[in-house]
Fold each of these.
Amino acid sequence: MTYTTAPASTAAEVPAAPTIGYWAGVWHRLRRDPVSLTCAAILLALIFCAIFAPWLGFADPYAGSMVARLKPIGTQGHILGTDELGRDMLARLIYGGRLTLFLGITPVVAAFVIGTSLGLIAGYVGGWVNSMIMRVTDIFFAFPSVLLAIAISGALGAGVVNSLVSLTIVFIPPITRVAESVTASVRKLDYVDAARASGAGNFTIVRVQVLGNVLGPIFVYATSLTSVCMIISAGLSFLGLGVKPPEPEWGLMLNTLRTAIYINPWVAALPGMMIFITSLCLNLLSDGFRSAMNVRQ
């Protein structure tokens, strides 16, 4: 009688290493960056305080007192002092973060949607469509961002809505240029040609093959524009082309407190410090996103 035996395995089977998705990898790299996490925590704290300010027990940001004008930092009942009309600076700064962050984030989001759409069309279609879109974009690039925002706001008039419109127009061209550049490079890759050869339509190719590979660079670039947008919006309010008094906004507060800089300089510098800290956190967080999304690194 003969017996057949299965051949013994010469080596132990090695289990396959688990794979994670792209965005899971981005989050894994980002949470190992203490600077980005610290900046994100500061920004989340500012946003939380700005949104829930009415329920956090802050003073009325519009209630003033001529007797309590320009109180120094550390005054009882006014931790950060008072402004030129005797209004509590801590409450004004917290409530002012609402409009400042809103004017810094909303135009970039709107410009991201519009600019990405225009850049995708220009980069994928090419030809005269690309020329028409990009030549109009080049016209806006002939003007510095600050001067263009001032010109549009001056033509439309002061106000929150007009500031949003002017800032959105300013940031559409740079995002469109970045989107067109990365789309033009991606459309020449092999997997796009393979999808086109398989009979997929242009809309399907753009949605499935192109969009997912170009959103990362465009998103990182858009996040870097948020701090610039916030600074320009504060500058418009400082010049009287943005938010109108008595609304609390950091740029407008700098304008109204500029005459008190020789009387109480520390209080007058507080809105500028808030703009500096917030823009610094936004820039560092944008750098963290750029490093985390760099797969080669």
Note: The chain is about 65% helix and 0% strand.
Amino acid sequence: MSNVQLFISCTLIWGSTWIAITFQLGDVDPVLSVAYRFTIASIILGCVCWYKKLPLKLPMHIHFKMAAVGLCLYTLDYSFLYESQKYLVSAVVALMSSCIIYINVIMRRLLLKKPIRLEVVLGATFGLVGMAMIFVPQFEHAQSQMFLSLGITLACISFVCAAFGNVISERILDHGTPVIQMNFWAMTYALVFLYGYAFLNGAELVFPSSTDYYLSLLFLAVFGSVLAFGAYMKLVQQIGSDKAAYVVLMYPLVALFISTLFEGYQWQLPALIGVLVVLLGNAIAMGKVPLSLGAFKTRQAND
């Protein structure tokens, strides 16, 4: 698949998981639901590796890095994010999530010694402005939240953990580690942390009777985890974790369009303009818009 196809796949799948996640909330502790999700995903990836006879033996230093991805990206990121949503409305979380691109850029520079790309920073800024235009008007309808500072702190921790996971994943992939094997091991290691955290936190092992819960769980495991994370890690491998992180800005737009169809979301002019600004930011971040006259002339010459 091309980078564009991988990017669109991640955006569409993760945008639709927002609806699926609503069926996961209720009887089961959120962290356990995430653990169930990655248990199924890990089993599927293990079966793929077995069926295709993909080698699972990797150097020990890669295993340590994959365990770190499992901890940061699949455990801490999700756990802190779910906790933050107890204190913040989803619009605030969606707006704050755009900051992960800046964190990725900084982490990538500090840990991987890779250059800061101007187009990514500028594109992220456009994306942040666009997200603000879409979501800030919704704050007026939100009730005042207690423990607002705690919610913001938890959300910020989750974004830092996600950025660490992204950058470590890029380092693993730079070593030539195949995406399928990396995701299998990272998700498998995540299970130790997820179940351990859930039980230490006093979560009760519950299996609900609702059919909707299991259908949404399968969707999240197969599409949201196996396919989407596979496509995302391939993007990280091919374009870098800084550019790949722009998916975080795009999939909330898909969620809004789905909400329009199923939940009656009402579009306002600022939100429509905000979508266009986010799309412009995406084009800039992906290098589709020349940032200088010299770049424009170069592109003309190449054409």
Note: The radius of gyration is 19 Å.
